[in-house]
Amino acid sequence: MDENRQKDENEKLTPEAARRARNQNMLEWYDALVFALAVLVAFFILVARVVAVDGSSMLPTLTNGDRLILRSAGYRPAAGDIVVIDSYINYGRPLVKRIVALAGDTVEIDPEAGVVLVNGQPLAEPYAAEPTTELGDMAFPAVVPEGSVFVMGDNRQHSTDSRFSSVGFIDERDILGKAIFRVFPLGRAGWLA
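The chain above was modelled as a monomer; its predicted structure follows.
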């Protein structure tokens, strides 16, 4: 019944009024599209970001060219998280690394045993590509300063990370977010641990 009434009303409209009604409908669709796009852009700026992995320092977990979604808003660093670090650090490039230790933790590396110790306890690191035998140029044991974290790549022998003074301790404010999902390549897409 309503459809017939609407059809009758539309037939009664002058050509000019019908054109205005069509234009009004188009403007409403345009407004909805612009609003949806603005919400999507705000989401990816404030809540989540998409970043690309550059290099092999996170093998076997991540490979060069992987695309990751980061959770940014409200993120608090935790040991074991894969994070992306802003390019404002001393190293001068964005880095994708794993948090190994938090503020106040003492980090040591036993190159002969190939283990990383945090607060005297060896880390269980099933994600590491190989034992950790490279010390870098940092002095160990090292206490992570307040407001900072200690990061390492999973590919320990081929990673420039907190073991090296060119990277050093990472200020928590320089962490862009936690990598939560790999979106590309599609064959390896999935949640990150």
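The chain has a mean pLDDT of 84.
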